[in-house]
């Protein structure tokens, strides 16, 4: 309906050469211009009354007055370029299309002046000043503020951004410079430090937008690198720069605001992660080296007890692990929560440690350190046992290659063969038994007197049980229970194996 109404409005306006509307005629112009009789007669095609909704549509409100105002504007000044959408607010359109002469004419009329704080339809709910910031229309920004627009006004949605944050995120350097250098403050609030509804400053948004020129400008004007958001991620601009892996922005922060930068290196976000934690997961060696060179700490843990080197291992960022080890990080340092080191975390996510040059070189220089690979965590499991239990073949072979022992026992006295058999990992079982130490664990019993064969039979892994039997596994009774392997095979219906 509104599209047809808009076309009729435009046609009538042109036909009358922008003349005064006839107050007695029941035209679309008069119906939308507030004529009592006409307004009450406007209905949709399904007969429902839409008067209240139409009056709320900012793009068509008081359109009769709008027609009178436009009657004083030269055709070439923009009347023939009116927006096609019936829901486009004229002020927003004039700003976005740089029709600043039209904007001035609109704002000179009291009917439209209140609309400087009007909100456009759409997902962001932006005001005209937000649009000016988005398209870097600095002249429109000055006009709107001169006519009463609030430069600290927020969008209704999308974090409640203010114009200064929009300008920073969009790279609108002219508007940003005007707000931070010429206006500087408004009603006692500095544009450089105002925040959105999550506590993000313009610098946060410039970093997220990757707008280096805006970042440089804000830093030179005193924007704080160590400013922490009050909600959301509760991160600093430096966190955001590391998340974006933007080394140039990080370098600007260190060069222009060195004291705040060093402080920000140790600030945790809502997950307890420092900027170094955020940088390591991307395997950006250049960024990690720069942070370390500037004083980032190697051993700080996040809220899950993960140091940067553990987080890097989880993400298979082995080049970064190399750098961290070269800088002194201990790959076998266990965290305080679950006593796990790099090997445990790598095994649990299926990360193969063989590509880690520094770790391999360290173990070659100090073979005695290989026993650290067999340390149990707070749950009593070794890294190799996790790899077997989760079925992570590459991590399993990688740990064996760098020196993990197959004879290491868990807290419940199980070997890695027990876990491989329990979870039906036939290829792992074959690898273990084909190794030189394989014969020593074939019939090893856990704390309940169960061998790998017992577990394979109990959990119904026929092929694993057959292979173990072919290698010489014994069918002796379980120590704590008078039950043999054969009894378990019959109990669980595995008659073929039992025979």
Automatic annotation (TrEMBL):
Keywords from the UniProt entry: ANK repeat, Receptor, Repeat
PROSITE patterns linked: ANK_REP_REGION, ANK_REPEAT
Coiled coil segments of this chain: none
Record region (Disordered): 13-55
Pfam families: Ank, Ank_2
ANK repeats: 124-156, 198-230, 271-303, 379-411, 412-444, 448-473
This protein's name: Transient receptor potential cation channel subfamily A member 1
């Amino acid at each position: 309906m509104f599209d047809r109404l808009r076309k009729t409005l435009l046609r009538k306006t042109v036909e009358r050469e922008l003349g005064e509307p006839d107050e007695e005629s029941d035209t679309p112009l008069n119906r939308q211009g507030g004529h009592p009789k006409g307004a009450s007669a406007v209905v949709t095609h399904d007969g429902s009354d839409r008067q209240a909704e139409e009056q709320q549509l900012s793009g068509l409100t008081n359109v009769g007055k709008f027609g009178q105002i436009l009657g004083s504007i030269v055709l070439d000044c923009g009347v023939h370029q009116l927006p096609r959408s019936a829901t486009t607010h004229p002020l927003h359109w004039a700003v976005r299309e740089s029709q600043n002469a039209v904007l001035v004419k609109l704002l000179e009329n009291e009917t439209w002046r209140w609309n400087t704080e009007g909100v456009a339809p759409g997902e962001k709910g932006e005001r005209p000043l937000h649009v000016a910031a988005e398209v870097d229309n600095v002249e429109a920004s000055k006009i709107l503020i001169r006519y009463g627009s609030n430069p600290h006004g927020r969008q209704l949605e999308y974090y409640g951004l203010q114009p200064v944050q929009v300008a920073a995120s969009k790279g609108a350097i002219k508007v940003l410079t005007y707000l931070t250098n010429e206006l500087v403050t408004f009603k006692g609030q500095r544009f450089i430090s105002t925040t959105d509804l999550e506590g993000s400053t313009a610098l946060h948004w410039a970093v997220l937008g990757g707008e280096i020129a805006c970042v440089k400008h804000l830093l030179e004007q005193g924007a704080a690198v160590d400013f922490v958001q009050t909600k959301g991620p509760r991160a600093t601009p430096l966190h955001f720069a590391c998340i974006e892996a933007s080394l140039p922005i990080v370098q600007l922060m260190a060069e222009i605001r060195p004291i705040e930068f060093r402080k920000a290196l140790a600030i945790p976000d809502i997950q307890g992660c420092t900027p170094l934690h955020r940088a390591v997961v991307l395997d950006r060696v250049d960024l990690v080296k720069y942070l370390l060179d500037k004083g980032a700490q190697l051993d700080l843990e996040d809220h899950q007890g993960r140091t940067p080197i553990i987080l890097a291992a989880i993400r298979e960022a082995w080049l970064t692990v190399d750098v961290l080890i070269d800088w002194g990080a201990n790959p076998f340092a266990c965290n305080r929560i679950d006593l796990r080191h790099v090997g445990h975390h790598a095994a649990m996510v299926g990360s193969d440690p063989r590509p880690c040059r520094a770790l391999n070189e360290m173990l070659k220089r100090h073979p005695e350190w290989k026993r650290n690979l067999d340390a149990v965590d707070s749950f009593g499991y070794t890294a190799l046992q996790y790899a077997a239990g989760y079925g992570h073949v590459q991590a399993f072979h990688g740990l064996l290659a760098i020196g993990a022992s197959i004879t290491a026992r868990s807290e419940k006295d199980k070997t890695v063969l027990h876990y491989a058999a329990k979870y039906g990992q036939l290829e792992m079982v074959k690898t273990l038994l084909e190794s030189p130490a394989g014969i020593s664990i074939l019939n090893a019993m856990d704390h309940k007197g169960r061998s790998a064969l017992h577990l394979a039979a109990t959990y119904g892994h026929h092929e694993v049980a057959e292979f173990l039997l072919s290698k010489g596994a014994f069918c002796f009774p379980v120590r704590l229970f008078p039950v043999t392997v054969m009894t378990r095979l019959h109990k669980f219906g595995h008659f073929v194996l039992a025979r």
